[in-house]
Amino acid sequence: MENFDLLDFVIQATYFIAALLFILGLKQMGSPMTARRGIVWAGVGMVMATLITYFHHEINHNYLLMTVAIGIGGVVAYVSGKKVAMTDMPQMIALYNGMGGGAAAAIAAVVLLKQDEMPTTIQALAVIGALIGTVAFSGSLVAYAKLQGLMRGVIRFPMQQFFNALVFVVALTIGLAIILNGTEYSMTLLAVFFMLALAFGVMVTVPIGGADMPVVISLFNALTGLAVGFEGYVLSNPAMMIAGIVVGSAGTLLTQLMAKAMNRPISNVLFSNFGDTEGGEAQEVYGSMKEIDATDVAVMMAFAEKVVIIPGYGMAVAQAQHKVWEMTKQLQERGVTVKFAIHPVAGRMPGHMNVLLAEAGVPYDIIYDLDEINEEFPTTDVVLVIGANDVVNPAARTDPNSPIYGMPILNADYAKNVIVVKRGKGTGFSGIENHLFFADNTRMLYGDGQDVANDLVTSLKEL
Hints:
The protein is α/β, with parallel strands linked by helices. It has helices at residues 6-28, 35-53, 63-83, 89-114, 120-148, 160-180, 187-205, 213-234, 238-261, 266-271, 294-302, 313-318, 321-333, 352-360, 370-373, 395-398, 449-462, and strands at residues 306-311, 337-342, 367-369, 382-386, 417-422, 442-446.
């Protein structure tokens, strides 16, 4: 007991409690009903971990620097979090995720710059965490730029994947040299290592189209968690280790689930050109788009028994969720059963549509995912598709040459009537023609999502 350090015990115990709060918070975030509580718990854990760090013996009196950094970061996060629109939430998540990866890489850089003697295992984990965190940092910034519209289209050139692989192999080789040489490596070598890692993160992301960004963001989130976990081990910080492992594993699982929802392996997302086909020409689209006005749609829904609403990114852009919920309540007052159908990759990030609907006040018990709602479409009188495209495209079932062939979709075309709210007659975000729009049971309601929803609300009130 003579060597018992009470302060160190309190610090480590606090880190452990913070880590438990992270885990419990993440568990609570698994359901929309408890997500807000989970965010609060995780936030409390982060505050505890931050405050107790002030008493850590390795701080070396850098209290002013810590406080200034926390203050600047806190103010920027608070202001941006308050001002960001829900439509911009995906790029904010990409940006903040990149900051997490960058922070892990910065920790590794500080450890490696000291060039102190350390066990080979610790040095190896520092190098691996640096590589993963740096790739997540630069890749997430590119994802942010694509979603924000700062970078349009994709950048592709001959032998691109070979060149990317070469950059990655060289970075790995330099990292291995740093590990094997202990403290006998130059700062130039370390700088080249980080520059190659930054370059690889950019180059692996620029050829990926915007339609795949939800999967990419989820993957980089997993990499950030993994990097934080590695650096937590380097610093002997249990809170970082546990939080990093939890985030890394959850992000990996989410990435796999989203790739499965698109019926595409992760390697296909990262290393192929989405939209390129090899099996032949896509099926010819027959029929024509048939227009309908808001008044007729309102009558159709008002006298229906069951209506299913399928929201997509177009609803988010138009910020129409509040008007859609107002319309839903009017239908419910008329005795119409209304349900919302959410595809796993609808929007620009995991859970994007769920967040928008929750913001508008839509009850969770009328929101259904793909597996829960698909069997109900044949008995549905009206399906209202507002801003969705690829997730309701029947070509995913019928056209082997379609880039989305095999992707599970919402079977909206099985309903008795389908109304598609769309700004114009162009293709969706991925550029693929939607066969649903030309179906005999489909009518097109053109216009901005919020304006259309407002017209439907007005027409329902007049009935």
